[in-house]
Amino acid sequence: MQLVFPMLEHKEQALSHRQEHFDNGETKIPGSAAFDEATNYETWLKQKENEQSNTRVLSFIFFAVISNKIVGMVHVRDIKNDFIGNLAGHIGYSVAPSQRRKGYATKMLSLALEKCKEMGIKKALVNCAKDNIISAKVIIKNGGVYENEISSHKFNNGEIYKRYWIDIK
Asked: How far apart are CA 27 and CA 97, in angstroms?
């Protein structure tokens, strides 16, 4: 598995990846950097390129790819504002419904932690919905230490999230 920056040549596969989530009843795709809300791939791609040079939030989006197939998405962020610091955390990720239960999320998070290290982040905040037991296990497998739960009507309509910290070695 490798993490690659989205590019124009990924368009059809990326749109198919997103549609798989939608067909599975998932309207929000964690770690997709708002790809679930994009109306145009090219515009979304340009926005993500611009965010990489933003001084408020240093943000990188990656496709997780195995044998040239997108199996998931990972969003790595440096914390510079309340949304990131309180709710989103340093890393968000998702795996395509057809690719779940294969260990891909664990590997994606591990690779994302390497990206955090490259960014100079020493300790990463990774959150998951309280009822997302599988994601909590993935975070713990990668060294996540539970801190607390958080809920915010400002950011997520009051959904409860578990917060974990991972020391980056």
From this structure: 13
Structure tokens at 122: 């020493």
Torsion angle, alpha carbons of 139, 135, 149, 26, to 10? 150
Report which DSSP code applies to 154: H
How much of the chain exceeds pLDDT 70, in percent?
88
Structure token digits, residue 136: 């909590």
pLDDT digits (tens, 9 = 90+) for 28-80: 999 999 999 999 999 999 988 887 776 556 788 999 999 999 999 999 988 76
Token pair of 144 as six digits: 């996540």
For the entire predicted model, the pTM comes to 0.90
Residue pair 91/77 in contact (Cβ under 8 Å)? The answer is yes
Which H or E element spans position 164? Answer: strand 160-167
* CA 107 – CA 141 distance, rounded (Å): 10
**At 152, is the secondary structure helix, strand, or coil?**
coil
Judge whether 30 and 77 are in contact, CB under 8 Å: no
- At 40 the three-state DSSP class reads coil
Q: First CA to last CA across the chain, in angstroms?
A: 21
Here the tokens at position 34 are 């708002």
